[in-house]
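Example record used in the benchmark description.
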Amino acid sequence: MEQRRVPSKIKDGIDSQVGFFQFVGNLFELYLPRMIDLFVHRMSNKNENTTGNGSSSNGAPKYPNQ
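Model output (structure tokens):
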């Protein structure tokens, strides 16, 4: 294939866009699973702590000083 010379302005623009998308991809890869785990953990704790009788799942009153 014939190689063509790409102007440096275009090459720099493409390189910066690729770098930005790599950065965003790394953020999603690092933090998205952590945020999902946190959300699932919060939702599961909320379901365990609400038993309907004002006490948590371990039998202790929700507001012990009242």
